[in-house]
Amino acid sequence: MKEELIISGRMNYKVDPSLHIWGWEIPLYLFLGGLAAGVLFFAGLYYLRGKENEYQSAVKWVPMITPFLLAIGLGALFLDLHHKPYFWRLYTTIKLQSPMSWGAWTLMVITPLSIIWSATYIKDVFPKWDWKYKWVDDLVAYFIEYRTQLAWIMIIFSVILGIYTGILLSAFNARPLWNTSILGPLFLTSGLSAGAALIMMLSKNPLERIRFSQIDLMLIAVELTMVIHMFMGFRASTEVQIEAAALFLGGPYTLSFWIFVVFIGMLLPAFLEIWELKGNHIPAYIPAVMIISGSLMLRFIIVHAGQASRYLY
Amino acid sequence: MKQSRREFLKISSLGIGGVTLAAPFFNWANGAIVSDETPGEDFVNRTPTYCEVCFWKCAGWVYKNDKGNIWKIIGNDEDPHCNGRLCPRGTGGLGMYYDEDRLKTPLIRKTIDGKQQFVEASWDEALDVVAKNLNKLKEKYGPECTALFTHGSGGKFFGDLLKAFGSTNITAPSFAQCRGPREVAFLATYGEIIASPERVDIRDTKCLVLIGSHIGENMHNGQVQEMSDAIDKGATIITVDPRFSTAASKSKHWLPIKPSTDIALLLAWIHEVIYNEWYDKKYVDKYCYGLDELKDHVKNFTPEWAYGITTIKPHVIRQTAKEMVNASPAVIIHPGRHVTWYGDDTQRLRAVAILNALLGSWGRRGGFYSPEKKSLPSFPHPEFPKPKKTWRDAHPGKYNLAIEVVSNGICDATIPTPDNDCSFKAWIVNGTNLITTLPDQKNTLEAIQHLEFMVVIDTMPMEITGYADVILPECTYLERYDYCRTDQNREPSIALRMPATEPKYNTKPDWWIVRQLAHKMGLDKFFKWNDIEEVLDWQLKQVGTSLEEMKKIGIKKFPREYDDLYFVEDQDIDFNTNTGKIELYSTDLEAEGFDPMPVYTPHPEPDPGFYRLNYGRHPAHTFSRTANNPNLTDLFDENVLWVNPIVAKEWDLKKGQEIWLENQDGILSTFPIKVRVTERIRHDSVYMVHGFGHDNKKLTRSYGKGASDTELISNVLVDPIMGGTGMRSNFVTFKLENPHKKEVAS
Amino acid sequence: MRYAMAVDTKKCVGCSDCVVACQTENNVPIGYCRDWVVEITHGTYPQLELEIRSERCNHCDNSPCVRCCPTGASHYSDGGIVLVTEDKCIGCGACISSCPYDARYPHPDGHVDKCTFCIHRVQKGQKPACVEVCPTKCMYFGDLDDPNSDVSKVLKKRKFKTLIPEAGTKPQLYFLI
Ligand SMILES: Nc1nc2c(c(=O)[nH]1)N[C@H]1C(S)=C(S)[C@@H](COP(=O)(O)OP(=O)(O)OC[C@H]3O[C@@H](n4cnc5c(=O)[nH]c(N)nc54)[C@H](O)[C@@H]3O)O[C@H]1N2
Ligand SMILES: Nc1nc2c(c(=O)[nH]1)N[C@H]1C(S)=C(S)[C@@H](COP(=O)(O)OP(=O)(O)OC[C@H]3O[C@@H](n4cnc5c(=O)[nH]c(N)nc54)[C@H](O)[C@@H]3O)O[C@H]1N2
Ligand code: SF4
Ligand code: SF4
Ligand code: SF4
Ligand code: SF4
Ligand code: SF4
Ligand SMILES: [Mo]
After folding, report:
1. Is the pLDDT assigned to residue B37 strictly greater than 60?
2. What per-residue confidence (pLDDT) applies to B744?
3. Which range of residues forms the domain containing residue C67?
4. Residues of chain A with pLDDT under 50
5. Residue B3 and residue B445: Cα distance in Å, rounded?
6. Residue A264: exposed, middle, or buried by beta-carbon count in 10 A (0-12, 13-18, 19+)?
7. Across the interface, which of C11, C31, C48 has its CB nearest the CB of B680?
C-alpha cells in the first residue's frame, strides 16, 4: 500500500483539500465573454457580407445586448478578485505571457467597441431615440462612416476574446485537465455556437433563423470532434492527464459532463434542429436555450473539474 | 463509586466572559488568527527564557515586535540543550500565551442554591481559602496528610512551601509514569541514574539502539539533533519497535518486535555477546560484578529461543548483536524515557543496563558520558520541620527501591482502607493534569472524592481543574520568573527565565502565589524575601554571576569541576553500588527479594477482535498540555487511530471514518476517533497519540477532538520494584456506531 | 546568484518545526502555511519505506506563476527568488491555479502569499527561518553559483531529486535522497 499524507495540517483556504480558487465567477465570466464574442463575430461577419438588412437581428440588435453581457462578465471577474482595491493594477502593465492580462486588455477594447457598434444602430432599432447632446450625434455619425473598419476589428477581437476564454485555462500546465491546447478552439467554437443560438432564438426572421440553425449544426459537429480529440489526447498522455480525463470517464464529473454538456448542450439540440430543418416545427428557443446552457455548463464543469485535477498528493 | 461529593464542574458554566481583559491580538474571524504585524527588526527587544512546553527546558530568546507583542521564540545558540534550535513545540510555545481559553482569574467552588459552581474570586479571597483549609487540615490530621503533585518549574516553589508546612510528599508523574524504572535499574547497576537530559553520547556514537524510544516523534530536542548528527556520520541505527516509527524508518535495522517481549530479545543479545566472548573483557573484568552468574543465567536464552517469543529471526538477532559489538564501546542501547510499559520494566531496563556494561559503553565516548550540573544554593531559610511520616508509611514493605515519591502511591493512599493509617486529605496539584496523566482514571477520581481539599494551579481549564475546590491561574512561562534551570549536560550551565511581558488577564506566577500563601499560612520565616529577583540575584551571585548579567546572556556555561566526560583508560572507579562495581548481578534487588538478574515472563495477548492499545508522542505536541495551543493545533488538531489495512478490511473501516473504542474492561471512549489506515502498525495493535480527547468544553479547540488513551488504560501493571504503572497491557475493540446514543435509547 | 534550498529526506523527521517557525517569523496567519510536510509510506508491514519531505515554493527558474500574473505582482527578485508585491496583486488567483505544487494561497488580506525564501533574513546574511530552526539540521540554503555555499556543497555530495520535473518549471528546491 502507498500512503501519501500531508502531515503538517496544511489547510490553506481555497487551496486544500482541493483547489477551489475559482468559484462561479470565473466560469460565468468566461461564458459571457464567449457568448458576446460569438454575437459580435456574426454581427461583423454578416455586416461585411452585406447582410445588414437581411440578418437584422445578427447585425443590428442582438449586439446591443453584448455591452451588458460584457459588463456583467467584468463584474463577475471583479467579484472574484480577492484584492479589489488594486483592480486598476490590471491596466498598468501589458503582460503578453499572461492570458489574464491580455484578456483584460481585449475586454478593454471590445467592450467600447460593442457599445459603439450598438450606438451606430440604435436609431435603426429605436427610431425615437434621441442622444440629447449634439456632440454624441456627431460622434455616432462619424463611427457610422467607419462601420467596415469597425466590423473588421470586431471580428478579430471577438476571435481573440473567444479563444482567450479557453486559453486562460489551458495556459495552466499545473492543472492536468486544462493542459490541452484544444481548450482555446473548443471554447471559441462553443462561444460562437452560443452566439449563433442566441441570434437564432431572438430573430423574428425565418430565413435568418434557418441560417443560424445551420451554422449551429456545423459548430456542434466541430465541437463534438474536439471533445473526442481532447479525451483521446488525455488518454495518450501522462499519468496525471489520464487521471484527469478519468474525472469525466467514470469519475465524479462523468454524469454532469456527458448529460448537460454533450447530450443536452450538443446532441439533443442538433437532433432538434435537423428535425426542424426537415420541416417540422419546433419553437426556436428550445434548441437555443439548450445550446446556451450547454455552453455555460461546459465552462462551469471544466473550471471546477480542472481544479480537482492535480500533480501531487 | 460513591456519590460524588466533588462534581466535575465545567468552567464554561460560569460567566468568565467578563474577565477578558486584554484586547485580543488575534482576530478570530473565519476561524483564523490573523496578525497584522510585519516581520520586525531582530534584536529589537528580546528577553531570555527557557522553554516550559516539555522538560528538556531549552533556553531561548523571546522576541517582541515593535508593538510590544510577543512575536517569536528562538533557541539560544549557547545552550547545550538546544544549540539555538527549539523543537516545534518550543517554537509554537507562544500559543500558550495567546490561547484565549486560558484560565483568567481565581475560582472558588461554592454551593449556591444547592448547586456546586465556580465563582470568580480575587487573589486575596482565593488564597485565604487555600491557606485556611490547609492549616485546618494540618491541625486535624497533621501536615503529612497534604501532598503536592507537580510537574514543571513552578513546582519548586510549592515544594518549598510544602516542606515548610511539614510534608515531604511531593511527587511528579515523571517518576512512576515515566522514567522511574530506568533510574532504579541504572542505580542498581551503576550506582548512578540517567537523569534528564539523558547522558547518552548520541553525537559521537557508532551504533544507536532504540528500544521503543521513538526519537523524532519524541522530540526531546538534544537527542533529535544528535541522532541526526549520528545519521550524518554514518552511525548504525537499530530500532526495536512493533510500530514503524519515524526512527525505525531512519534505521539500518528495524526489528518489528512482538509487543511486550523485549526482555527476551535483550537476554538473547546478552547471550550472544557473552557466549561469543564479544564483550569488552578488560572493562568487564575491571568494573563488573557477577559475570559468571549472568553467563549461567542466560545459558539457554539463545536467539532461537527468543525467535519463538519475539518473532525476530535468529540471524537478525545475531547480526544486530554483531553490529553493536563492532561499534563497541561507542554504542548506546538507549535506556528510553517513558518506560512504564508492562510492570516488569525495571527488569527490562536492568537488561539494557547490563548489555551496555558488557559492551563497555558506560563512561565511554559514543556511549554514556558523565554529566555535570551547576547547582545554585537555596536562599537561606531555617531548617524545614521533620515530618513524622511519609507516603511510604502507607505502603509498608513496598516500593523500597523507589527513589522518588510514587504518584500513584499517593493516589492509592488517598482512598482510605482499614490497614492504612496515612490517608491523604489534601492535594495541591500544580502543572499536572492528573486525569489524563495517571492511568486507571476510576481510581484517580475515587481518590479525589475522598479529599477534603484540593487546590489546582494551572494555566488552562484542563480536566483536573474541574475537580478543584480552588483554581489558581498561573501565568505562562513567557510572563514570569522561575528558579533558574540548572540541569545536567556535558557542560554545566545555568539558564534564566524572565518575563517577556506582563501577565495577561488576572494571572500570577507560582513564586508570587507561594509567597502570598506562605504569609497567609504563617510560614513567613521560611521565606525571607519579598520578590523573586532578590532570590535569583542572590543565588546567581553565589556562583559568580548576577541577575543583571543573566538578563543579557540568558545562559551561562561553567567549566566542569569534578571529572572528565569519559573514563580515562584504566581509571580505578568506585561505583556507588554495594559491591563498588557495575552490578550485572544486582545485590540490591536480591536483598529486596527480586530477581537479581532479569527474567522474561510472558504477558497477555489480545483476545480475538481486540487489539493492543499502543500510544506515543506527536512531534508537535506535549501530552495533553498543548492540545489547545492555537499554533500547534494548526499542525495537528486531533489524534487518529492507526489501523493496519488487513484489520481495516476485516472491519470495513475507511480512512477518516469515526469509530469508538471499548477496552477489555468494557470502558468506552467518550469521543470517537478517526481511522488512519496505515501499514506502519501491526495487525494485532492499534496506535494513537497520547493527550487528546479533551472533555472540557472550555477548551474550544481541543474539546472532543480525538480520543483519550488514558481513559482506556484501566489495566495497570504496577512494577513491584518501584511502583511504576505499566500501561501497555490494554486491549480495545471497535464500535462503529455511537455506543453512547444506544445507552440513552435503551 | 541563484538561491536554492535542499532538504534531506533521510534526516527530516516530519516534526513540522519548519512550519511553525515560518508562521511566527513571517506572521503567517493561523490556518495558513507557506511550507508543509509530506509523508509517503511504501510497502507492506514489515517491509516498509518512509519518505518525509518539507515542501514549500520551489522558486522555479521557469515559473508559470510569474508568467501568468497579469499585473507583474509576481516577479523574480534577487537570486531568482519568486516574490509577490502585495499592493500590485489583485488577487485574481491565476498564479495559484498555475502552480503545480500548490505553493500559494490567498492571504486573508486579499493578496496572494507564499514562501519568500525569507528574503528579509537572507538579505541580512541570515538563513531562512525554517532552515535555522530545523532540529535535524536537514535543510541547506544558499547560492548555487557559489561552490562553497551549503547548498552547493551538499548537492555535489548527495543524490537528489526535484518534484514534478516534467512540469518544466525548473524547481530550485532539491530533495536529497
Ligand atoms: N513531541 C513530544 N516529545 C516528547 C514528549 C511529548 O509529550 N511530546 N514527552 C517527553 C517525555 S516526558 C517522555 S517520557 C518521552 C517518551 O518518549 P519515549 O521514551 O520515546 O516513549 P516510549 O513510550 O518509550 O516510546 C513509544 C514507542 O514505543 C513503541 N512500543 C510500544 N510497545 C512496545 C513494546 O512492547 N516494545 C517496544 N520495543 N516498543 C514498543 C511504540 O510503538 C512507540 O513507537 O518523550 C519526551 N518527548
Ligand atoms: N495514557 C498516558 N499517560 C501518560 C503518558 C502516556 O504516554 N500515556 N505519559 C506519561 C509521562 S512519560 C509523563 S512525563 C506524564 C506527563 O504528565 P503531565 O505533566 O501531567 O502532562 P500534561 O497532560 O501535559 O499536563 C500538564 C498540565 O500542566 C499545565 N501547565 C502547563 N504549563 C503550566 C505552567 O506553566 N504552570 C502551571 N501551573 N501549569 C501548567 C497544563 O495545562 C496541564 O494541565 O504523563 C504520563 N502519563
Ligand atoms: S524540547 Fe521542545 S518543548 Fe521541550 S523544552 Fe525544548 S523546545 Fe521546549
Ligand atoms: S523542521 Fe526539519 S525535521 Fe522537522 S519537518 Fe521540518 S525539515 Fe523536517
Ligand atoms: S513553486 Fe509554484 S509558486 Fe513557487 S515559483 Fe514555482 S510555480 Fe511559482
Ligand atoms: S493573484 Fe496576484 S500575484 Fe497572483 S496572478 Fe493575480 S495579481 Fe498576480
Ligand atoms: S524560507 Fe522562509 S518563507 Fe519560505 S518556508 Fe522557510 S521560513 Fe517560510
Ligand atoms: Mo515522561
Report:
1. no
2. 55
3. 3-176
4. none
5. 12
6. middle
7. C48
Give per-residue burial for B70-109: e unless 16+ CB within 10 Å, then b.
bbbbbbbebbbbbbbbbbbbbbbbbbbbbbbbbbbbbbbb
Q: Measured between alpha carbons, how far is B99 from B626 in angstroms, rounded to an integer?
A: 10
Do B572 and B693 share a domain, yes or no?
no
Closest Cβ–Cβ partner in A95, A173, A174 for C72: A95
Which are the contacts of B609, defined by CB distance < 8 A and separation ≥ 6? B733
Q: How many CB atoms lie within 10 A of CB C122?
A: 20
Q: What is the pLDDT, as a whole number, of residue B741?
A: 82
Instruction: State the Cα–Cα distance between residues B626 and B96, nearest whole angstrom.
Output: 8
Residue B85 belongs to some domain of the structure = no
Measure CB to CB from residue B679 to each of A3, A7, A9 and give the nearest one: A3
Residues B652-664 pLDDT 10s: 999 999 999 999 9
Q: How many domains does chain C have?
A: 1
Residue of C33, C65, C119 with the most ligand 5 atoms within 8 Å of its CB, for mutation: C65
Question: C-alpha angle with apex B588: B582 to B589, nearest 5 degrees?
Answer: 105
Assigned domain for B649 exists: yes
Ligand 3 mean position, distance from CA B198 (Å):
14
What average pLDDT is seen over chain C? 96
**Cα separation of the two ends of chain B:** 23
Does B544 fall in a domain?
Answer: no
B668: in domain = yes
ipTM: 0.93
CATH code, B298: 3.40.228.10
Q: What is the mean predicted confidence (pLDDT) over B117-144?
A: 97
In chain B, residues with a C-beta closer than 8 Å to the C-beta of A8 are 635-636
Q: In terms of DSSP bridges, do strands B46-50 and B59-64 run parallel, antiparallel, or are they unpaired?
A: antiparallel
Q: How far is CA B569 from the centre of its chain?
A: 36
Same domain, B569 and B619: no
Show the ligand 4 pocket: residues with CB < 6 angstroms: C 7, 12-18, 37, 54, 134, 136, 138-139
The closest of B195, B615, B604 to B436, measured between CA atoms, is B615
Q: Which residues pair with B663 in a beta bridge?
A: B732
pTM of this structure: 0.94
Q: Which residue has the cell 573483557?
A: B281
The number of residues in chain C equals 177
Residue C99 reports pLDDT greater than 90: yes
For B713, the domain range is 611-735
Contacts of A107 (CB under 8 A, 6+ apart): A33, A70, A73, A74, A161
Number of H helices, E strands in chain A: 12, 1
Distance CA C107, CA A82 (A): 9
Residue ranges and CATH numbers for the domains of chain A are: 25-91+98-308 (1.20.1630.10)
> Which residue do the cell numbers 459532463 mark?
A257
Based on the structure, what is the number of domains in chain B?
A: 2
Residue B30 has a pLDDT of 34
B197 upstream amide cis, omega within 30 of 0:
yes
Claim to verify: residue B575 and residue B708 sit in the same structural domain:
no
The three cell numbers of residue B314 are: 535468529
pLDDT tens, position by position, A69-97: 999 999 999 999 999 999 999 999 999 89
Query: Coil, helix or strand for B6?
Result: coil
> By C-alpha distance, which of B369, B346, B370, B360 is closest to B291?
B360
A84 interfacial to chain C (CB closer than 8 Å): yes
At B645, which CATH number?
A: 2.40.40.20
The pLDDT value recorded for residue B34 is: 35
Binding site membership of B181 for ligand 1 (Cβ less than 6 Å):
no
Please provide the average confidence, as pLDDT, over all residues in chain B: 93
Is the domain of B569 the same as that of B696?
A: no
Q: Directed axis angle between helix B441-449 and helix B407-414, to 10°?
A: 50
The pLDDT of B626-633, averaged and rounded, is: 97
- pLDDT at residue B151 in the model: 96
